[in-house]
# Entry
Amino acid sequence: MQISALVDGELSGAELDRANAHLAACEQCRAEAAELRQLKRDLRALAIPLSELASYRAGGLAEVGADEALTRRLLAMAGPGGPVPSRRLRREQHRRDRSRNERSRSGPARGRDRGGSGGSGGAGVRGRQRAAGPPYSVRPRRSGGAPRRPGRYVLWGALSLVVVGIGAVAFGMGGGGAAEPAPRVTPQLEMFSIEHAINSGDVPFPDPTKAPAQSSPGATRP
Amino acid sequence: MPAPRRPGLLVAAAVTITVPGVLAVLAVLGHQRVAPGAAYLPPVALPANSLRAAPAATGPTVGQAQVRTAAVGIERMSQDAITSATASAREAVGLRLLGKSATAGLATSYQGVELIAQLGVNGAVTMISDVWHRSGGLTITRTTDAKELDGGQPYVSYDVDNRSPEGVFGVTKTLVTLLGKHYVALYRGNGSAVGRPALIVDLYRGDESLAARFWLDRQTMVPLRRDVYDTSAQLISEDAFVQVQFGSLPAQPGAGNGGSRNKSAWARAEVPAKLVAGLNGSGWHLPAGLPGGLPLYAAARSQMGLGQVVCLGYSDGLSVVSLFAQRGTLAAKMAGWAPVDLSGHRVYVAGHTITWAGRGFVYTIIADAPPQTVKQVVASLPPATSPGFLGRIGRGLDRLAALINPFG
# Structure
């Protein structure tokens, strides 16, 4: 079955119906299809041109089983001339490999490691990776490695959201010219001038802001 | 066997006691005596050597040479003491003359025209003021901007509460007391002002630079003129009577189209520092002193339409800064005010008045002080700048906390 063609959207009509019917009945193919979709997403994330993916597929997925096809593609990507993964990806892969080695030494894999890529197949890939080139691959993360903790991300995300929200509200409420609702005032110069005259023991000055034609209201020096 | 007689020693001892005392008395009495029409003495170093010409006590004819020698030695030894005594006497006299001048208005009626020229942060301001003062009470001033003598209306004010009848050219009892704490007042001799004999008193700073000179009417002790200098000896204020008449007064001038006689809306604080501390505890930002060595010495508050206004007086006796503070922000349009950047503040200036808004308050200062002191004062008060990003968030958090605080 051309699972990759199905994933790539190359099937149509009766072929597509047949493939979907098969996927509905075959758990292994469903897992294969899911893995391929995940692989495509990761490749997109790494900005790998789909043309490269097509060339990998041209290696002859039809003659071998789904697992073998996947393995070959992964090996092809890990070989010389392939895209250089980021340092972060290499670190994660290294960590996953070390974790798996420890688990394999201690006993058979459990839980999620049993499914997906399979125990012996995965070990074989890792062995060849170590022999053939750098210890990395673009293998879907969910197929192995340290278990992810989505709760932590959710927690941090929620916390960030709360902080940003409070900050935005505070910024909005902190606007305006005064700490309290402030009346707009104009200094009462006549009154002030007289009080200053008492303080300074001199004559009060007229209000310079009044127009010359207007008379001062005759402020009283108390 | 008779004891050896040594009259020279006795005479020397007598002179030792007598001469310094006589010289000190002459120094005090000689400078209190004012000779009418005497020439003005320029402000130079104290002429202590002139006291050497004062008549000295003479001893008996026997041993005159010894006496003369002893007297010269004593005179040299007591030179510093005499100089100090002379300076103290001049200072005491200078301060006492200013004290008398501060209360001269209680017993003297006068009418005259004052010319007031002061250098402010935005240039010089010159005023002409007609002053009518009845002894011990009412004072009416009618002030006009010298630039608008032709078309401007006079400014009329009354001193109905007799709170500062003596206030002429900044010589009041309170300010003279402050002068004595911050300056050295030296009586400098006689002179004249506006055609009248005057006593001249100089004010010196601690660094011995001349700060101000007063001309006090010799007959009435009313100040006739005052010149104020900054620390670089530049004349920054000149207040003088250009015409004055003492004694019987013509009829009280009318108030014209102004001149109400309402009682003061200001309530004086007995202890200014206490008022300031209380307001600062309520979120106000009022200083206990201003730069330039201007301590707080007066405080009053008034309830206006838009809230409470506080007036604080700061002075060293010569420079006076009145700070008015009230909650609020400035009006959107400040007609008649010129926007000026001063000491990092965006302020508005009108004549001697500077106003700006900062931290929820409007500050207004009216200053009789050197421009550099005014700039320092403005810089020391809350600025008119926006709070900034973090400041705005902090203010918003405060408001938010106040909003949700169940105990607030």
About this structure: Chain A touches chain B through 53 residues (CB under 8 Å). The longest strand of chain A covers residues 184-185. Confidence is low (pLDDT under 50) at residues 60-64, 109-140, 211-222 of chain A.
